[in-house]
Specification:
- This protein has an eight-stranded parallel sheet with strand order 1-8-7-6-5-4-3-2.
- About 45% of the residues are buried.
- The protein has a single domain, classed as Aldolase class I (TIM Barrel), CATH 3.20.20.
- By secondary structure, the chain is an alpha/beta fold.
- The longest helix is centred in the C-terminal third of the chain and has 15 residues.
- The chain contains nine helices and eight strands.
C-alpha cells in the first residue's frame, strides 16, 4: 500500500522503466532506486489500445523483490495500464506485486466496476486521461480514486515532447481534487524534465513520471536531484 500524510503531499519522482536498458533491467531498477527514485512506474501497452507493445505481469513479478530502498523498504510499483479490456490484466498485475494500478476510462465498459475490481485486489486505483480526453467521468467516481494521471503526451511511445495544453487539464484536475476534499495524488506523464517540472508542479501536480529524462542520462542521481532542486525552488 502507498501511504502518505493526510495533510502533506510530498513530490514524488517515478521513473518509467519503459526507457530503461532491458538488457540489464534488474540493475537499472536497483540503480535508479539508489539514485533516489521514490516509485517505479510501469507503462503497460497492448498494441490494441495504444500502438505499441511493452511488457506484462512477469516483468512486474521479477522486479518486485528488488524494488527496495537502502533500508530494504519496498518501493511502490505504479502500473499504468494502456490496455483494453482492463480487468483481467489488472488482476494479473495485482498478483504480480503492483501497489497502484491506473487505467483509462474509455478502455473499460464499466468504469466504476473496474475501480472496485482493482480495490478488491488490494491495490490503490487511478484513472488516466489522454491529452484530448475530458475529465467529466470524475464527476461520478473521484471519491473512489487514489490517483489521477494526466497524460501530457499521446500514449504509446516514450521520448515525446510535453503538450502545453496539459497545463489546463492539470489545473482542472487539481481543482476537482480540492473540491472533493480527498487526498488524491495528481500524476503527470509525458515529456517531464527538470526544466519544466516546476511549471507542472505549479499547475497542481505532485507526482512526476520521467522516462528518457532519467534513463537517458549518464548519472541517475544527478538528474533526480535536478528534479528535486527545481521542485524545492
Amino acid at each position: 500500500m502507498i501511504t502518505r500524510s493526510a495533510t502533506h503531499t510530498p513530490y514524488v519522482i517515478a521513473p518509467s522503466i519503459l526507457s530503461a536498458d532491458f538488457t540489464r533491467l534488474g540493475q537499472e531498477v536497483t540503480d535508479v532506486i539508489q539514485a533516489g527514485a521514490q516509485w517505479i512506474h510501469f507503462d503497460v501497452m497492448d498494441n490494441h489500445y495504444v500502438p505499441n507493445l511493452s511488457f506484462g505481469p512477469m516483468i512486474c513479478e521479477a522486479i518486485k523483490p528488488i524494488a527496495k530502498n537502502a533500508a530494504l523498504e519496498p518501493i511502490p510499483i505504479d502500473v499504468h495500464l494502456m490496455v483494453q479490456p482492463v480487468d483481467t490484466l489488472a488482476s494479473s498485475f495485482a498478483k504480480a506485486g503492483a501497489n497502484l494500478i491506473s487505467f483509462h476510462p474509455d478502455a473499460s465498459a464499466h468504469v466504476h466496476r473496474t475501480i472496485q475490481v482493482i480495490k478488491s485486489l488490494g491495490c490503490q486505483v487511478g484513472l488516466a486521461f489522454n491529452p484530448a480526453e475530458p475529465l467529466s467521468v470524475l464527476d461520478w467516481v473521484i471519491e473512489e480514486l487514489d490517483l489521477i494521471l494526466i497524460m501530457s503526451v499521446n500514449p504509446g511511445f516514450g521520448g515525446q515532447s510535453f503538450i502545453p495544453s496539459a497545463f489546463k487539464k492539470i489545473k482542472e484536475a487539481r481543482h476537482r481534487i480540492q473540491a472533493c476534499g480527498k487526498n488524491i495524488r495528481l500524476e503527470v506523464d509525458g515529456g517531464i524534465k527538470p526544466d519544466n517540472v516546476r511549471a507542472v508542479a505549479d499547475a497542481g501536480a505532485d507526482t512526476f513520471v520521467a522516462g528518457s529524462a532519467i534513463f537517458g542520462q549518464a548519472n541517475y542521481s544527478d538528474v533526480i536531484q535536478a528534479f528535486h532542486t527545481q521542485l524545492s525552488a
